[in-house]
Amino acid sequence: MPRAVWNGVVLAESDRCLEVEGNCYFPADSLNREYFQESTSHTLCMWKGIASYYNVKVHGQVNVNAAWYYPKPWPLGWKIRDHVSFWHGVRIEQ
Questions:
Q1: Cβ contact 55:65 at 8 Å
Q2: Strands 49-58 and 61-69
Q3: Does CATH number 2.170.150.40 belong to domain 3-93?
Q4: What is the mean pLDDT of residues 17-26?
């Protein structure tokens, strides 16, 4: 079962992940929310829409914008609604 790990902590784990463009998207309900803080950052994907980000805080260390999601994805990206993906050193383990 895929899980996202950073700084020795499992951030998310689920057997209901989706893969899009080589990224593993975890269902929002699989996140260990205690490690997530809303970020003020946003970016635009030309087919998925506007992405929002989370900072991840573990053991006092903050990984800025380490997770992203699309709160209102455009039609082509609809299947990743309510899903979160990771980067910036967050490992996806199987």
A1: yes
A2: antiparallel
A3: yes
A4: 97
